[in-house]
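hey so i finally got around to running the thing on that chain from the lab meeting. sorry it took forever, my laptop kept dying and i had to restart like 3 times. anyway pasting the input first so we r on the same page abt which one it is
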Amino acid sequence: MTTNDKTAEKRTVVDQLSFDTKTAKRVAYSQWEFTIVGPYEIEVCNASFGYLKDEHTYRVMIDEEGIPISCTCKGFEHYHSPSGRVGKHMLAVATVGGRTLLDAARDFSPHSTPSDNDSTTTAAEKLKADGGTATIDPEPDTCPNGYDLCDGPDGDVLPCFPCLETKDRNRM
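ok and heres what got predicted. didnt touch it at all, straight out
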């Protein structure tokens, strides 16, 4: 049998996997989190379990083409591997994670080169106060109702509700 090269190139990863409808539904109804932990290795977490999600975290291995080939869960060893079908974790990587996740796991390098930027800025440093002083508006309150943030009915700042009513009445 010969293969058509044009259609073979268009096949997606999902087209190359064998799975049943039940597995596809379980993937669709679950929430997934992915972490690339090494070359060709993706950590898959079923976040639908809430605070117990750490107990439902497994590792999926992919091949050079980005196709999931194994999983560390019990279901893969006992049910899916012998039948040639993929489990929900492997299917989640292929469908929910998609081509972007698979390519990133395939291209992952633990020995990445550092960038030219050698200064480190933490969130605390970015949010640090500049040491300036607070300024106080020297103008006295012009609100006839005594509100601090109101400039009265003719001011530039959004007036308080009583001044706003006065302003609207003056327009009529």
